[in-house]
């Protein structure tokens, strides 16, 4: 008995009136689809991260200072944590999207959506827990998140429009 399947398994049995089940490799001689070529230098996708990291470090220090002067040590910690939450979140999204785009562009949408679902689930759990506490730095944490989002978005938009124009 000859086996026409590459993995050594027995061929699928077909019964009259029942559609064919499983994979039958013997009649599939279609060529694989052509994938688009990868870009010559994929580093441009993350070229803004060192500059944004430096701006974010300065923002963490500014937010902590403003929080300390506004409400003491707890507010300083809250403001700094708020900025750090945004920095980690945005950096993770950038790295996942850049990696997916260099490996296989078809993975871009599913991995980006999965990243956002994971991030917002974690953020939701943290917020539900944070609202129920009596910690005095939670208002400063919210303002730190707002400051982080505004500054990161503005600096990234400035970077891509003024500094790094796509060719």
Automatic annotation (TrEMBL):
It comes from the Bacteria. Keywords: Membrane, Transmembrane, Transmembrane helix. This is ATP synthase protein I. Residues 1-28 are annotated as: Disordered. The chain crosses the membrane at residues 49-70, 76-100, 107-129, 141-161. The lineage of its organism: Bacteria, Bacillati, Actinomycetota, Actinomycetes, Micromonosporales.
């Amino acid at each position: 008995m000859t086996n026409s399947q590459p993995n050594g398994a027995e061929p699928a049995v077909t019964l009259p009136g029942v559609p064919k089940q499983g994979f039958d490799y013997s009649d599939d001689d279609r060529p694989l689809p052509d994938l688009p070529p990868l870009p010559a230098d994929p580093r441009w996708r993350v070229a803004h991260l060192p500059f944004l990291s430096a701006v974010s470090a300065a923002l963490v220090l500014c937010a902590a200072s403003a929080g300390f002067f506004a409400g003491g040590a707890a507010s300083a910690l809250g403001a700094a944590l708020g900025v750090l939450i945004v920095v980690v979140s945005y950096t993770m999204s950038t790295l996942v999207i850049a990696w997916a785009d260099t490996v296989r562009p078809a993975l871009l949408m599913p991995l980006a959506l999965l990243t956002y679902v994971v991030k917002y689930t974690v953020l939701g759990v943290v917020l539900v827990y944070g609202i129920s506490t009596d910690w005095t730095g939670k208002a400063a944490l919210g303002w730190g998140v707002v400051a982080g989002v505004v500054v990161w978005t503005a600096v990234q938009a400035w970077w891509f429009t003024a500094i790094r124009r796509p060719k």
